[in-house]
Design a protein that fits this description.
Two copies of one chain form a homodimer.
Chain A lengths: L1 E4 L2 E4 L4 E3 L3 H5 L2 E9 L2 E2 L2 H15 L7 H15 L4 E8 L14 E7 L5 H6 L1 E7 L13 H5 L1 H6 L4 E6 L2 E5 L2 E6 L5 E3 L8 H11 L4 E3 L2 E2 H5 L3 E6 L3 E8 L2 E2 L7 H17 L2
Parallel strand pairs in A: 8-9, 8-16, 12-13
Antiparallel strand pairs in A: 1-2, 1-7, 4-5, 4-6, 6-7, 9-10, 10-11, 10-14, 11-12, 11-15, 15-16, 16-17
Chain lengths: 275, 275
């Protein structure tokens, strides 16, 4: 597999950073993650916009323009020749002289084969637990997953698939996905503040707005428990129904009509995008 | 300079990690930092204990025993031949197959020359600002400094030297140091919960307990503003008086008697340790 580091295409196994990099020393880096479908990078403009926004918000200057990056990405798609893949772009705080002040960033692009959840997986849905937490600087897609990884044992112990961050009784987001609820009246609700601006979330919102009443606003934990349907959105999982929250069954334990409708709309939307 | 990575002594410039390491991918690593004085690693047992505690709390298994590590550290002191130095030990989440689940850790030791603040610097003191924040898993010395580095612009803009994290009107800690206050009645107070267990803090507490009334308990922001003296403790700075909080002068703008006394006691304590 070929990867890209700073301004060079190199073998993925040779992509190394010196231990002085701020990502290693201080967990100081941002990243983004998008995927290709049939060799086409899905919603690439939106992902690049978010990547550049994260960089600006954290005070790091990307090494390339968006157009240059598209060229690099297309070159990797051509060289690696994997139809269905995930791309990770990481921009770090660089080799800091004092291990604290950001320097010239290091930039890495890694491509890997990616398998999305099957339709069976969609219909099986997932069960989740809740955890009181809000990510630091949640609008920035930083590499800070300390809490997420620390929580993995709790998730396993409780035989759940995912943990949803909640803060002061308001649902926020999953460590790597956004949350949606559908009220009993059929309104699609998703939190807007203190969450990452998920690109799949953005696309699903666009699709939902054509058919349903949509509200971007704080979603209380109580509303979540009382929802007709709950689902997550993520780049690597598209849409997955949440069918259990702690011990409470949601949507009678099977994907709800609106979740299913949005899932099918999203699949068609992807197809259209790639035509 | 010679460094150490996993089980090898190598040139510091050759200490690299593959980009698949969880420290780069997910900011998932712990570390510790101690210093040598006249070739002697100060309070090494305490630092090693904290390092092993951080590792255990986060679920990483160190590659060495404490005794083995002492041997490696002594070998580095001998080879690099720097009397006054700082040692950083980093233990990462390793090369994770799925970029999320920790694997066999990578372990790095880096040694660098270190200059501590002069007596002039001590007498000049520092000015600080406050910021509402509590570190994730604060008892763990993780590499998560996203907020600390993000705040450096705010600190500069306000012409301060440091930022103190406060949460719900309770003072916690600096990004890389602990906080102490001395009340007008001469009681030495330092927070005990939701802060890192600083080794210099621990030593200063031992010295303070011989002479003063000491309280380890929540310290309110109001108490801080009304304190007779405020100071920080850190490995790289020993004790530094806080002489300004936002616009308010503390201790008439010069180091207080108890701060000075503890500073001198600490210097003597260091000397004794190295005899």
């Amino acid at each position: 597999m070929i990867a890209y580091i700073n301004r060079e295409f190199i073998e993925e196994k040779d992509t190394v950073l010196h231990t002085g990099d701020l990502s290693i020393q201080r967990g100081f880096a941002i990243f983004d993650y998008f995927r290709t479908r049939n060799f086409i990078p899905l919603f690439i403009d939106q992902y690049l916009n978010r990547f550049f926004n994260s960089a600006a918000m954290i005070g790091l200057q990307p090494l390339h323009t968006k157009e240059e990056l598209k060229g690099v990405i297309n070159e990797l798609i051509f060289r690696n020749n994997i139809a269905e893949s995930g791309f990770k772009m990481i921009l770090t705080g660089g080799y800091s002289a004092d291990s604290f002040e950001p320097a010239l960033p290091n930039f890495i692009i890694l491509q890997q084969p990616l398998q999305l959840p099957t339709k069976e997986k969609f219909h099986k849905g997932i069960s989740i637990i809740l955890h009181e937490y809000m990510r630091d600087l949640p609008e920035i897609k930083s590499t800070n997953y300390l809490m997420a990884i620390w929580l993995r044992d709790k998730v396993k112990q409780q035989k759940a698939d995912e943990v949803l961050y909640v803060k002061d009784n308001v649902a926020l987001e999953f460590p790597r996905a956004n949350v949606f609820a559908v009220t009993k009246a059929g309104t699609v609700v998703t939190p807007e503040e203190n969450v990452l601006n998920g690109i799949t979330r953005m696309m699903v919102l666009q699709l939902a707005e054509k058919k349903y009443t949509v509200e971007k606003r704080p979603l209380t934990v109580e509303e979540l428990y009382n929802a007709a349907e709950v689902f997550l959105t993520s780049t690597t999982r598209r849409i997955l129904p949440v069918l259990k929250i702690n011990d409470q069954i949601i949507s009678e334990g099977k994907p709800g009509a609106i979740t299913l409708n949005l899932y099918n709309s999203f699949l068609r939307f992807e197809e259209e995008f790639c035509k």
